Amino acid sequence: MKADRAYPRFVVSAKGTRWLEGGHPWVYAEEVLREEGACENGALADAVSEKGKYLGTGFVSRESKIRLRLVSRNANDRFDADFWRRRVHYAWDYRKTVLRPEDLGCCRLIFGEADGFPGLTVDRFSDILVAQTLSVGVERIKEQLFPLLLEVLRADGQEVSGVYERNDAAIRALEGLEQFKGWWGAEHPASPVTEICENGVYYAVDVENGQKTGFFLDQKYNRLAVARLAAGRRVLDCFTHTGSFALNAAQGGAEHVTAVDVSESAIEMARRNAARNGLGDRMDFLCADIFDLLPELEAQGGKPYDFIILDPPAFTKSRRTVAGAERGYKEINYRAMKLLPRGGYLATASCSHFMPAPLFEKMLRAAAADAGVELRQIEARQQAPDHPILWNVPETDYLKFYLFQVV
Predict the structure, then answer these.
(1) Packing angle between helix 322-339 and helix 357-371, nearest 10 degrees?
(2) Same-domain status, 223 and 359
(3) In which domain, by residue range, is 147 found?
(4) Whole-prediction pTM value?
(5) What is the pLDDT along the chain (407 residues), one digit of tens a residue?
(6) How many Cα atoms are found within 13 Å in the side-chain-facing hemisphere of 354?
(7) Which CA distances in Å does 397 have to 26, 127, 174, 189, 311?
(8) Residue 201 within a domain
(9) Which residue among 6, 14, 73, 205 is buried most deeply as judged by most CB within 10 Å?
(10) Which residues of 79-101 are buried (b: 16+ CB within 10 A; e: fewer)?
(11) 3-state DSSP call for residue 146?
């Protein structure tokens, strides 16, 4: 490491050093032995080992348990506009490589640590970018970052009319940040509602009031996998939200699709999306709690559906609640397996990082045993590649998606 570093230093414990040298970009507060030099909240600082070895440079967070989030391990980097412009270029070029051209109009442009922007999420919905800043460091430089995003996209011929900030996530409090939402800058469209096309299906997306950033983009290719199996089948889409899996199933040629969600507003949006795509005649919509509906359908007898889709919200967002989440996942999967006829199909997912694939698969085996069925695996899938997984950052690996035939 060069001796004339301009940044304050965080001396990291042996455990923290091993963690960083293993490739993870976070330094937890308890692994900081001491600080050398004054450092403002959200500013950049170097992480060094007890022997003074340079480990990386990152954003400091005084409020969070994650005290330092690395943005670089190169001691020669200068964190100016050119540095961040290169990062944006890398992220956009990656999406252009791994996605189909028709998918670039609705995709995740920036996926936090996986793209070298710790705590930043940026989704594209047609001509609107939706940004969520969940670290104080990114919040501090967003006035530099957002113009660079617009610059890079527009230089590549992409139409972008505005950036909407969805900073209403409760997790911002852990960084000492206030919650808010609204347009960034003076240049933006009049309405926060836009339209996207994914897999040939059109959706209205409300970036102001929709869940998360407005629409769940991580399942785009899993929806295609469902569409391929849906032809001629009677489909029950549980936790439909605004109807994405249901619409893909109907577009794929399903005989009939029932879309269910506990939210009346989500069901109303799903109805509108079905009408927009001319699929309403093969779909119906039900506002109900899936935990109540599945036992009721089983009690009625018969096998009204031969394809059931389970895409629930995250049942756990911490390690403390994993056991309860496992029970919830098992209940809905057990009920779905009981309800399906032999030869029927099941799509089941978990979007919680804290429910790792081995535990989710263990739950599925137990549910199948209790239901008295066997599972023939068709596919095991993950999030779409615009949500890239870094193997050295387990937190980027969160979505599990399985397709089975019940035999």
Answers:
(1) 40
(2) yes
(3) 81-191
(4) 0.93
(5) 445 688 999 999 999 999 999 999 999 999 999 999 999 999 999 999 999 999 999 999 999 999 999 999 999 999 999 999 999 999 999 999 999 999 999 999 999 999 999 999 999 999 999 999 999 999 999 999 999 999 999 999 999 999 999 999 999 999 999 999 999 999 999 999 999 999 999 999 999 988 888 899 999 999 999 999 999 999 999 999 999 999 999 999 999 999 999 999 999 999 999 999 999 999 999 999 999 999 999 999 989 999 999 999 888 777 788 888 889 999 999 999 999 999 999 999 999 888 899 999 999 999 999 999 999 999 999 999 999 999 999 999 999 999 999 99
(6) 15
(7) 16, 28, 22, 34, 17
(8) no
(9) 205
(10) eeeeebbebbeebbebbeeebee
(11) helix
Q: Is residue 352 part of a domain?
A: yes
106 tagged catalytic:
no
Please check whether residues 235 and 331 belong to one and the same domain. yes
Is there a single domain that holds both residue 27 and residue 56?
yes
Secondary structure (DSSP) of 202-252: EEEEETTTSSTTSS--TTHHHHHHHHHHHTT-EEEEET-TTTHHHHHHHHT
Q: Is 205 part of a structural domain of the chain?
A: no
**Residues 6+ away with beta carbon under 8 Å from 96:** 104
- Residues 184, 138: Cα–Cα separation, whole Å: 14
User: Do 168 and 49 reside in the same domain of the chain?
Assistant: no
Last residue of a domain, one of 153, 175, 191: 191
Say yes or no: 231 and 345 in one domain: yes
58 and 176 together in one domain: no
Instruction: Give the chain's domain count.
Output: 3
CATH code at 104?
A: 3.30.750.80
The reply to whether 325 and 402 lie within a common domain is yes
Catalytic one of 106, 107, 238, 351:
351
CA dist 311 and 168 (Å) reads: 23
